[in-house]
Design brief:
The protein is built from seven helices and three strands, in the order H-H-H-E-H-E-E-H-H-H. By secondary structure, the chain is α+β, with helices and mostly antiparallel strands. It has one domain. A three-stranded mixed β-sheet has the order 1-3-2. The chain is elongated, with a radius of gyration of 17 Å. This is YgjP-like metallopeptidase domain-containing protein. It comes from Pontiella sulfatireligans.
Length: 167
């Protein structure tokens, strides 16, 4: 029986269904059918362009981003899939802030739908620091099927954990 680390917050009935899919070896096929192929956003520059396009479409008035990059240490160190950081510095007599978004390198070879979901999630943190109702409402504004994609991304990560990077 596989440990469903990424699905622990979901209903036991749903976890049982996923467990059955794992035991029947049908989770991989489900994911491949639903999300065939991967994206071409492999470099930090391409990720920055992708992120800024989303930011400019949905969050024009939010603070600028100083850095957007893939980070191969995020999953190991933070137990997260992406991070946002906000650094405030005194420059002269003014307080300057910099926003950074780092995306786990596991998303370099993931389906585009999952990269999109994690970028939307981190962009939402520019306005809402916590995971509250306003945060999720903003995520849904940028990506109407946000919650479904988050769930499927958790299935994808579960499959990666079980079988390695070849999905």
């Amino acid at each position: 029986m596989a440990t469903l680390n990424y699905l622990s917050g979901y209903a036991p009935e749903l976890q049982e269904k996923i467990q059955q899919m794992i035991e029947q070896d049908s989770l991989r096929a489900f994911l491949q059918k639903k999300h065939p192929g991967t994206h071409n956003i492999r470099s930090d520059a391409a990720l920055r362009d992708y992120t800024l396009a989303l930011k400019n479409r949905f969050m024009k008035k939010s603070a600028p981003l100083s850095k957007v990059a893939y980070d191969n240490k995020i999953h190991v160190i933070h137990g997260a899939l992406g991070t946002h950081s906000y650094v405030a510095r005194v420059q002269g007599g003014k307080l300057k802030s910099k926003n950074e978004i780092r995306i786990g390198s596991v998303f370099k070879k993931a389906p585009e739908a999952f990269l999109n979901m994690i970028v939307v999630h981190e962009l939402a943190h520019l306005k809402e620091k916590g995971h509250n109702k306003a945060f999720y409402k903003l995520c849904e504004h940028m990506l109407p099927d946000y919650h479904q994609r988050e769930f499927e991304m958790r299935l994808y990560l579960t499959q990666l954990e079980l079988s390695g990077p070849d999905i």
